[in-house]
Amino acid sequence: MYLPEDEDISCNDFESMILNPDEMKLYLKKLKDSCANFDAKIESNILQSISKSSECAKQVEKNYETILQLSNQKKELKAAIENLKLEQKVIEKKAINRMKEIEKTKTDIESIKERKEKLMLEIIDLKQESEKSNEHMKKQWDAVKKACRMYKNVLDIHIDTEMIDHIEHVTVTFFWSENPTNHKYFIVLTYQDNCWKVKKIEPELSMENKYQLNRVVQFSKQSEVANVTLLLCELRKLFLKNYFEK
User: Fold this and answer.
1) What angle do CA 212, 162, 157 make, to 5 degrees?
2) What pLDDT tens digit does each residue of the chain (246 aa) get?
3) Keywords for this entry (predicted)?
4) Which of 155, 184, 199 is the last residue of a domain?
5) Domain shared by 173 and 231, yes or no
6) Which residues constitute the domain of residue 137?
7) d(Cα 162, Cα 235) in Å, to the nearest integer?
8) Residue 34 placed within a domain
């Protein structure tokens, strides 16, 4: 601590000053004033030091609070960075999964396209098969109608056709010219899915007669007919032999 110099209180001739009361009194006064001034300066410097120490303490406390805030902010920032890293990993994983889904969707689309093309080809093939089948059915039906026209006069039969529930029903009545109003001898045939079946025969056949027709009518398989023309001929023979001659 630096103290400014006071008024000079040194004494070169102390003995003569003691012998001179006025000088001694003046010297003592100067010495007292100098001591008082020194004490005041000491007190002032102490107060200044205390003030500076207090300001330093406040500054230290303020700096400590600032450091504490910065430390907390650092922790919060570190936690935020960790959360961002975690969110980034989640986003990256979602992005990878989404890319996988997109690739799978692309693969599925290609598979669907291939399946569609395959189905289109199958549809074309089925249409061609259907056209061929319809043409074959038409030829068969035309052949049946032609055969019926050929044998109609010879067999003395009458043919009626009717469409019921999208199924062709054909009724063939025998001995038409002899008894056209009392149709007792007839057969009802159905035609569906390229297959002829016997729906009804009047009068009803015996088991023996059915056995005789077994080679042209499969009574065990919903009465499917193998040959319609042959069936009509065989049935007419049975009617002539077993029923009409009675």
Assistant:
1) 50
2) 444 455 555 666 667 767 778 777 887 888 888 888 888 888 888 888 888 878 887 888 888 888 888 888 888 888 888 888 888 888 888 888 888 888 888 888 888 888 888 888 888 888 888 788 777 767 766 776 676 666 666 667 888 888 988 889 998 888 887 766 666 788 899 998 888 888 998 888 888 888 888 888 887 777 888 888 888 888 888 888 876 565
3) Coiled coil
4) 155
5) yes
6) 89-155
7) 21
8) no
**Shortest CA distance to 194 belongs to which of 229, 144, 149?**
144
Q: Phi/psi of residue 138, each to 5°?
A: -65, -40
Q: Does the model's pTM come out above 0.85?
A: no
Amino acid at 74: K
Select from 193, 198, 200, 191 the least CA-distant residue to 144: 191
Q: What does the alpha-carbon distance between residue 111 and residue 116 come to, in Å, rounded to a whole number? A: 8
- Indicate if 163 and 148 belong to the same structural domain: no
Q: Is 138 within the bounds of a domain?
A: yes
Number of structural domains found in the chain: 2
Number of Cβ within a 10 Å radius of residue 30: 15
Angle between helices 228-238 and 21-155 in degrees, nearest 10: 40
Helix and strand numbers (H, E) in the chain are 4, 6
Question: How far, CA to CA in Å, does 138 sit from each of 61, 133, 162?
Answer: 110, 8, 17
- Whether the bond into 203 is cis, omega within 30 of 0: yes
Are 126 and 134 contacting, i.e. CB atoms less than 8 angstroms apart? no
The number of residues making up the chain comes to: 246
